[in-house]
């Protein structure tokens, strides 16, 4: 039979199903489209308002609106070109909000231009940044709004400030309204953008708070479950220790006494008694390990608990013991750097082989068992154990029906696989693969893997 030397692909989870991935991709595309549309609208608005002051300063001879001074008109043209570039920079306002806001506000401070791109970028500053620089930028944008209002008052009668002084007011009359019109204009310009930024900030903080509350609740529920499981493990440990430890100790003592008494009279009986005593002693060691893990799972990786675990070096003794049983065993073990195998994998491999051999002796007594174990770093451990299972065989004992389930759980917990099946020729087989280095297990996994 061909051995598997690479891990099988993981089973698809509900979260990674094609339908779920398609839905997530559609949502992502929809959000990206909305963000792109909003950015395009903001850039268009910024370019429109960037050109507007230049048109005010050059006037309109056909409508009888004289231009301002040539120097101011030239400065307005330069400011319009620079502010168009600042409006295009709004594409990166969420990534570099400070930089974009500073550039747009600086242009509005030193040239006759509009503060609208700076106001749009200020929304991202208030939304995505924290600290004193947020309010420094807010003050700079407010100052830019005041300066832009002052430049607007020096333009012709079609300026924004002329609406405060009345239709057809002269530039002098417009300038006379500055003491009260400038603060009002700055307030009206800043209010919607600052309110939008603070609203988006409050919504983001609310979402973060909701996520933290959910995480806290989940952590509290997990901690409560862990405390409950720990209490159950301690109760199970007490029951196992009180019921099985004393019986195994008694069995070991009687087997030792039987071995001593039969050593001279019956060599075969003495050998059987020795096997019983050694098995009882090993069972006691395994029982102590399980009890320790149940009582203190946090130290499951520690040397005190792990010292009693079996490894790949114990497989020869297990195979040798099976060779003495009726039917025997045909083994083919080829391992590269067996000492470098992860202790958890080595222990699980030993237990799977032990349980598979026990099942074969129980359900197919007298049949020859074939064992193949190959592996090494990078390839993992590939285990195949087969035995004929002809009809009419009588099991030597009645098992609990959990052997294959337990072996499968051991392999799964370590990231491996295990299957059990009977082929068309009536041969029952255990086929398992275990990784050489398993994924990291959490503390709560330790009792299950024991």
Automatic annotation (TrEMBL):
Residues 232-298 form the Signal transduction histidine kinase subgroup 3 dimerisation and phosphoacceptor domain. Its EC number is 2.7.13.3. Keywords: ATP-binding, Kinase, Membrane, Nucleotide-binding, Phosphoprotein, Transferase, Transmembrane, Transmembrane helix, Two-component regulatory system. It holds the Pfam family HisKA_3. It catalyses: ATP + protein L-histidine = ADP + protein N-phospho-L-histidine. The keyword Transport does not apply. CDD domains: HATPase_UhpB-NarQ-NarX-like. This is histidine kinase.
């Amino acid at each position: 039979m061909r051995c598997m030397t690479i891990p099988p692909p993981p089973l698809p989870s509900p979260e990674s199903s094609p339908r779920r991935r398609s839905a997530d991709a559609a949502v992502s595309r929809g959000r990206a489209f909305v963000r792109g549309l909003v950015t395009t609208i903001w850039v268009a608005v910024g370019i429109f308002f960037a050109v507007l002051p230049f048109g005010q300063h050059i006037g309109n001879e056909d409508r009888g609106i004289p231009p301002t001074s040539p120097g101011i008109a030239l400065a307005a043209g330069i400011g319009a070109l620079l502010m168009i570039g600042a409006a295009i920079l709004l594409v990166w306002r969420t990534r570099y909000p400070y930089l974009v806001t500073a550039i747009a506000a600086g242009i509005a401070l030193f040239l006759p231009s509009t503060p609208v791109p700076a106001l749009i970028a200020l929304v991202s500053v208030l939304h995505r940044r924290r600290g004193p620089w947020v309010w420094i930028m807010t003050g700079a944008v407010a100052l830019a709004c005041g300066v832009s209002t002052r430049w607007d008052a020096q333009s012709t009668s079609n300026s924004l400030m002329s609406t405060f002084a009345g239709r057809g007011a002269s530039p002098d009359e417009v300038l006379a309204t500055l003491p009260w019109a400038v603060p009002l204009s700055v307030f009206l310009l800043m209010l919607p953008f600052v309110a939008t930024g603070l609203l988006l900030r409050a919504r983001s903080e609310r979402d973060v708070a909701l996520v933290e509350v959910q995480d806290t609740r989940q952590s509290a529920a997990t901690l409560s479950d862990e405390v409950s499981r720990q209490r159950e493990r301690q109760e199970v440990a007490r029951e196992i220790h009180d019921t099985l430890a004393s019986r195994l100790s008694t069995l070991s003592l009687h087997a030792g006494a039987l071995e001593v008494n039969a050593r001279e009279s019956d060599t075969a009986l003495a050998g059987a008694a020795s096997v019983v005593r050694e098995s009882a002693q090993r069972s006691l060691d395994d029982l102590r390990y399980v009890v320790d893990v149940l009582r203190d799972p946090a130290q499951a990786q520690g040397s005190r608990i792990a010292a009693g675990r079996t490894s790949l070096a114990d497989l020869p003794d297990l195979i040798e013991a099976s060779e003495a049983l009726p039917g025997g065993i045909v083994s083919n073990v080829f391992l590269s750097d067996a000492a470098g195998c992860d202790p958890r994998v080595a222990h699980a491999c030993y237990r799977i082989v032990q349980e598979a051999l026990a099942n074969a002796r129980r359900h197919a007594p007298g049949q020859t068992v074939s064992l193949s174990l190959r592996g090494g770093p990078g390839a993992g451990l590939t285990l195949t154990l087969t035995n004929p299972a002809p009809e009419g065989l009588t099991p030597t004992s009645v098992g609990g029906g959990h052997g294959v389930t337990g072996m499968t759980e051991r392999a799964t917990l370590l990231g491996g696989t295990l299957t059990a099946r009977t082929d068309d020729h009536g041969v029952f087989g255990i086929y398992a693969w275990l990784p050489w280095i398993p994924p990291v297990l959490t503390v709560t996994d330790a009792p299950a893997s024991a």
